[in-house]
Design brief:
InterPro entries: Divergent_DAC (IPR006837), Glyco_hydro/deAcase_b/a-brl (IPR011330). By secondary structure, this protein is an alpha/beta fold. The chain has helices at residues 2-9, 29-50, 129-139, 170-173, 180-183, 200-209, 225-234, 266-277, 298-310, 326-332, 350-367, 378-389, 401-410, and strands spanning 107-112, 119-124, 153-155, 160-162, 188-196, 215-218, 239-245, 285-290, 314-317, 337-339, 342-343, 369-375, 397-398. Helix content is 34%, strand content 15%. Strands 5, 6, 7, 8, 9, 10, 11, 12 and 13 form a nine-stranded parallel sheet that branches. The longest helix has 22 residues, at 29-50. The chain is elongated, with a radius of gyration of 36 Å.
Length: 411
């Protein structure tokens, strides 16, 4: 009755307010986020601890290796069932040692760690065409150039490299022709154009526009430096091979792949030297490509000089490092040696190049022989070409580098 009376006494149009219950969770949103993050970290830590992955997540390359015998066996033996579906057997092992492989069915790629010198031989079977072409490009040695004496070549793991054969040495055999009797009686000048082999246009300009007595130095890089070096020899130019060596600001200033480094052991640098020597043939000697630090470091430089001397090569120091020990090392190895006197295009303008060439003439008159170095810049080639045309009229003989080296040694 009381409740009914209250309802009757309540003003019309007004209902009795009712309390709404709010659903409350026993934890806050931040607590929920913290719990989820903790579970994620716990799962990740458990995976890292208990997952047995010997590579530890390192990047890896998968190479397909197929057994050539599989093509001669029945379909069932190659992993196909009677229904034509491929049956995968992950536990089966491919015995490559016991299965003889015909020539051309496998390639061996040797990977060398440049910092440790560690070598890893990887045998690649008859994979798909892309894999085979990549392996062939990485391991195929450069072809032997035309006009090369096979007796002066020795096979290395990278290709053919120079060697002495009896009384024959590459320095003498591949030296350009010169009137050495005349050179002994008058001042001589030699010019070395470096940095060739990378950039066919500038290399061909140097080959065709400069007189044969100008010596050309090739880097081991480029798509086919051997073909360009072969063209240079066909034009009667004498060639030298530039060996990339460590400069003081390495690695900010990096000469290129397989650079000889003072931080490597003698064996590691020797392995890199063989790679460079195999890029082409027909050179009379080697010269430094950059390398101000390396050529001034006796423990690193001495083994390279001894090896070059043993193989019948000469050594040319381009003169860029005032602390170079190459002269003393070459003298102790009794090998032909030369050093650059003037960088002709240090300032690559016609006026400065002409001024450097005049200094070269003066040095030749004073000492009997002088060597200038230059790059294959168009302005350098043009000014040197014009200068050589009247050099004989001024009583100076233009000779190949080897002739200047021999004259300096004899004097």
């Amino acid at each position: 009755m009381t409740e009914t009376a209250d309802d009757l006494s309540a003003p019309l149009g007004q209902d009795k307010p009712r309390r709404k219950r709010r659903l409350r969770l026993p934890f806050s949103a931040m607590q929920l986020l913290a719990v989820l993050l903790g579970l994620f970290l716990l799962t990740f830590a458990g995976f890292a601890i208990f997952n047995k992955d010997p590579l530890g997540g390192e990047p890896m390359t998968r190479i397909a290796i197929r057994d050539p015998k599989a093509t001669d066996e029945k379909p069932a033996a190659s992993g196909h069932g009677q229904d034509g579906k491929h049956e995968s057997k992950p536990d089966s092992k491919l015995e490559t040692k016991d299965a003889p492989k015909p020539p051309g069915e496998q390639k061996t790629v040797t990977m060398i760690d440049g910092s440790t010198g560690a070598r890893h031989d990887v045998v690649i079977g008859a994979g798909d065409a892309a894999e085979k072409s990549e392996a062939a490009a990485a391991s195929a040695p450069p072809p032997v150039m035309a006009g090369i004496d096979p007796k002066l070549l020795e096979k290395s793991r990278y290709g053919m490299i120079p060697v002495v054969a009896g009384d024959l040495k590459p320095f003498n055999v591949y030296a350009a022709d010169a009137d050495r009797a005349k050179a002994a009686k008058m001042p001589v000048v030699a010019i070395v154009i470096g940095g060739l082999g990378v950039g066919a246009a500038k290399t061909l300009d140097a080959i065709m526009k400069l007189p044969p007595a100008v010596t050309l130095a090739f880097t081991p890089y480029g798509a086919d430096p051997g073909k360009l070096a072969e063209r240079a020899r066909a034009q009667r130019h004498e060639i030298f091979l530039q060996i990339p060596m460590e400069p003081y600001d390495f690695p900010d200033n990096d000469p290129g792949p397989q650079t000889l480094l003072t931080s490597l052991s003698a064996d590691q640098n020797m392995d890199r030297l063989y790679w460079h020597l195999s890029r082409m043939q027909g050179y009379a000697g080697i010269t430094n490509f950059m390398g101000a630090r390396f050529i001034a470091t006796e423990p690193a430089m001495q083994p390279i000089i001894r090896e070059a001397a043993k193989r019948g090569l000469g050594f040319f120091d381009d003169g860029s490092s005032p602390r170079s020990i190459a002269s003393q090392a070459a003298s102790s190895a009794a090998m032909p040696f030369g050093r650059g006197d003037i960088a002709i295009d240090a300032v690559p303008t016609p006026t400065e190049i002409d001024r450097a060439l005049n200094k070269l003439e003066s040095a030749a008159r004073e000492r009997g022989a002088a060597v200038g170095t230059a790059s294959a810049l168009p302005v350098s080639i043009d000014r040197i070409s014009a200068w050589t045309k009247t050099l004989g009229d001024r009583g100076i003989l233009l000779v190949p580098l080897t002739t200047a080296m021999l004259k300096s040694k004899s004097s």
